[in-house]
Amino acid sequence: MNNLISGIKYFIAGFGLITKPGVKRFVIIPLAINILLFLVLFFLLGHFLNSFNHWLSDFLPVWLFWLSWLIWLLFIISFFIIFIFTFVTIGNLIAAPFNSLLAEKVESYLTGRAAEDRGLLENIKDTPRMIARQISVILYYLPRAAGLLLLFFVPVVQGAAGIVWFLFNAWFMTLSFVDYPTDNHRISFTAMRYRLAERRWSSLGFGLAILAAALIPIVQFFVMPAAVAGAVKLWLEEGGDEK
Q1: Could you report the per-residue pLDDT of 222-238, keeping only the tens digit for each?
Q2: Domain interval for residue 76
């Protein structure tokens, strides 16, 4: 426990958990939202890639065309990071009540304790609070992300900036999904964040696995529900109250 491998294993375990009896029917709506959102963002990606290609052709003088491959590489890497961030963030905001219900059912399956039968309607009524909670995660992310992006313009530390940026986004992925089981128990975002920081390697491993899976075709459709389920297991075994 508390190592990168265990964090990755929690995410992988999520794929198995969403197929369990009493759980899998609660995956349908988050999965449908994931697929629709991905298709919309994919078409937008194609549009922006085409626009960027035209802009680059007009912007670069002929004698600098040898630099186009490097500019394209940087653009693709940056765009895919933004794509994953947007994909996960918007998906979590839209699917918040369904992900919360899924987290309840996964916890019930793992602990053997019957979940409070609030039902989907009660969860939907609670949507404003859930969305506000997810927004608090985003507000935690944005100023720190902006500060980290400045490192790319600082000499000497530029080489490490990419690694730090990637690790921070992995940390954000973990916060986004562990937020569901903790919010179900009304554990504050701050308390959850500090508890996960004590298990930083597992937390980073979990987030890194999410980032990697989000880049794999087809698998990316199942990332959201699997991450919710895996987050429940991570929190129960490494982050929650030790009883």
Answers
A1: 998 999 999 999 999 98
A2: 4-239
